[in-house]
Design goal:
By secondary structure, this protein is α/β, with parallel strands linked by helices. The chain has two domains: 158 residues, Rossmann fold, CATH 3.40.50.300; 67 residues, no CATH class. It is 33% helix and 23% strand. Helix 3 packs across helix 4, helix 3 packs parallel to helix 6 and helix 4 crosses helix 6. The structure holds adenosine-5'-triphosphate (ATP). The site of adenosine-5'-triphosphate has 10 residues, from helix 1. Belongs to the ABC transporter superfamily. One of its GO terms (biological process) is transmembrane transport. One of its GO terms (molecular function) is ATP hydrolysis activity. This is Peptide/nickel transport system ATP-binding protein.
Length: 235
């Protein structure tokens, strides 16, 4: 289980974006996360991927409370969680070939003996041809690059995957292909997935459970509405 308990996080002192958020992503299931723009979905994705330190609350990975975030995140916990962003072009080094992009997490862990076999296996699984592997990001489409980004996220076999609007820029067939690969991970490897999307129809088809974040707060006198947690109509 990847879980966040009592998460408070934000950017400007005194105005948290998440204000006491609880969420649980069990192994082998897809939890959908929906909600209007600006309500904190990507913030939650960064906190659960250990890229952003919450102001309060805790993140646990398979029962172990995370003790550090960003560079201070324990390697074992950091590699347990893969992240795929909405904008693949902002998520890769433009100088790298797709091969190197996919290989990067293994390279960073010093697992060079696995590199070529694992990259070939992932590329085939994600439908990235040998010819595409030698190209750089500006020489491929968004969909082809996002396939490589999903391959990169899966390279070290994470136990959890956070997909932050992974398919928002993609056509229907690429969306279906990527969702199919993620579903196979869930079924065959027991991966737990947080699928963030504006597309409620996609989430209803894809996720076992959908959590909806509240809209941005509206001030009504002294009543400060709860913000950033699941609404009671969680399904
Ligand atoms: N780096 C940042 N610095 C300051 N404020 C930020 C930063 N990133 C996000 N915010 C603010 O935090 C709030 C939540 O942003 P976040 O990106 O988490 O929302 P979101 O639900 O993912 O939105 P969207 O659906 O549009 O992607 C927004 O008000 C946003 O302006």
């Amino acid at each position: 289980m990847l879980s966040g308990t009592g998460l408070v996080a934000g950017y400007r002192k005194g105005t948290p974006v998440l204000n006491g958020m609880d969420i649980e992503i069990p192994a082998g299931s897809v939890v959908g996360l929906a909600g209007p723009s600006g309500c904190g979905k990507s913030t939650l994705a960064r906190v659960l991927s250990l890229l952003q330190q919450p102001w309060a609350g805790r993140v646990s990975v398979d029962g172990a409370v995370v003790t550090g975030f960003r560079h201070a995140a324990p390697r074992e916990q950091r590699t347990a969680i893969g992240l795929v962003f909405q904008q693949p072009r902002q998520a890769v080094d433009p100088r790298f070939t797709l091969w190197r992009i996919i290989a990067e997490p293994l390279h960073a862990l010093g697992r060079s003996e696995e590199l070529s076999g694992r990259v070939a296996e992932l590329a085939e699984h994600l439908g990235v041809s040998d010819e595409l592997l030698s190209r750089r990001p500006h020489e491929v489409s968004d969909g082809q690059l996002q396939r490589a980004c999903l391959a990169r996220a899966l390279a070290v076999r994470p136990r959890y995957l956070v997909c932050d609007e992974m398919t928002a820029m993609l056509d229907a067939s690429t969306t279906a292909a990527l969702v199919r690969v993620v579903d196979e991970q869930v079924r065959d490897a027991g991966t737990g997935v947080l699928a963030i999307s504006h597309d409620e129809r996609l989430l209803e088809r894809w996720a076992h459970r959908v959590v909806r974040l509240c809209p941005a707060p509206v001030w009504e006198g002294d009543r400060r509405p709860f913000r950033g947690g699941p609404t009671p109509d969680e399904v």
